[in-house]
Input
Amino acid sequence: MKKIASFLLCAFLTVSAALSAADREHTLKVYNWADYIDEDLIAEFEKWYEEQTGEKVQIVYQLFDINEVMLSKIEKGHEDYDVVCPSDYIIERMLRQDLLLPIDRDFGNAPDYTGNISPFIMNMLRLIDAGGKDANKYAVPYMWGTTGILYNPKYVSPEEVKSWEVLRNPKYAGKIYVKDAFRDVYTALIVYLKKDEIDSGKLTLDQAARDASDESIALVENWLNSMKDGVQGWEADFGKELMTKEKGWLNLSWSGDAKWAIDEAANIGVTLDYAVPQEGSNVWFDAWVIPKYARNVKAARYFIDFMCKPENAIRNMDVIGYVSAVGGEEILEAQLDPENCRPVDASYFFGPEATAVPVDYVLYPDKSVIDRCTMMHDSADRTEALMAMWSRVKGDNASTATYVIIALAVLAIVAFMLLGRKKSHKRKSSGKRR
Output
């Protein structure tokens, strides 16, 4: 129901704004993922913008569900979106192709809230290979998370999920689901398979993540082939639903999906948990950028700034269930939960005073977990080779049972929507394909 409401809102804003489409000075075109914002903030921004500038602006809010679709509209279609929210590797590609404008942080008399971004996420941006450009001048991080394993401790022990090898354990065959996201899976596994070289100092985590050589692709492909007979489904969004119903016991998943599933399962008496294997994995993030063909750069800058206000960051997290890139005392205070959360070292995100704070470890992993994670990169001319590998791996594993389960999962999701079941934690991309 929430998704339907999102698209209805999007359609309404588009139609109403079309009446003044020619007046681009007072129209702001925002292109974002579905279910990825507190929608009340859209109208609130329009009011806030007028208070700050004395000018009116009307938002045209549109949705995408695949990074590459968004990129194609800008790169090939020269669409004049003013603000978009791509993922890390797409930001890297857009910078290389000169598709982004620098974000001026001068807001006159208005405060600069972009300074609230956690230094941890800003440091991740510095890993972007942008041909000599500083990505922090072109992107303001929005949400972030990790890739790991959602599991059912009734059947799988916490000790087993300390290693990616658990996915190859034959006793879990038919109870394993894997995200149909080749970049996330490849990055996590290449870090794991290159662990000895990383531990010996021959490779850094970032160097391993960038490695898309034929040899490394073959290494990951062989490992995937050795475990794929146990995979019941390659999924974009239905895995978390099946986990809550105990149809699956292991799910290579995103932290946001994991958080949603853990909370949903608890409501029906099922216990789920999430872990990032000790061999390492990847941290991903999405960020606000201003595309090259934007026509209202001023309002775009203010919109990005508005999203970085701590109170707005908290509202967005509460609605969509993901973790804001905004740090600071206000965010930390809002996330403290001593009754339900064990202390973790979140100093990497909140600063040196946060070495033992009771926050959700799924959303804010311990520093020891973050230290063994890296970020994904654009594979440039190696993308086709990676996609071909992924297609080969999945191609022989689509059993009739898999299709039946997928169909049942889709029907179940539709049924929930029609019944108006409210979900407090929504997958940020609901089928998002990295």
About this structure: The radius of gyration is 21 Å. The chain has 18 helices and 14 strands.
